Amino acid sequence: MKPRVSLQDSALRNGNFSLRIDPVRSEDAGLYEAWVRYDTEVHSCHVELGVITVTLSPPNPVIEKELLLMSCNSSHQASLVETCWFHKEHLGPTSRTFCSLSGALSILHPAMSDAGSWRCQLRYSDKEIISATFSLQVLGFDGPTSPVVYAAAGSAAD
Length: 158
Hints:
It comes from Struthidea cinerea. InterPro entries: Ig-like_dom, Ig-like_dom_sf, Ig-like_fold. The protein is mainly beta. It folds into two domains: 5-49, no CATH class; 52-139, Sandwich (Immunoglobulin-like), CATH 2.60.40. The chain is built from one helix and 13 strands; from the N terminus they run βαββββββββββββ. The chain is elongated, with a radius of gyration of 23 Å.
């Protein structure tokens, strides 16, 4: 896993033997075990790493008005009950939520308004709820709705 894995050597003296993986890949999912020996004492811990994979087809950035398929999968072993997608989770008219039985969401004609923060939430039969957030980029024209722009003489116009 080198060079994606590191230990914080300075933290070891304080009893922190954390492992850092950056970036995490789907094949990194599984059970991790750590053993630390100090003089005659041995300490151990077990940590299970679950991984969520968000896939865009075509990949980021997306071109405006071209079909977009977003899918969300996890290494969790229980049966998937529901997948929900949340877009711009603040209150207001641009906040949207989509739920389905599968992990996929298709947007037939993505627009500039589809860009920004998305979160997929996976709900499983064992009551586990797992989510991941990602930023969607959409390439397109985000200008005035009218092709005519007025500017005062002597000022700048965009």
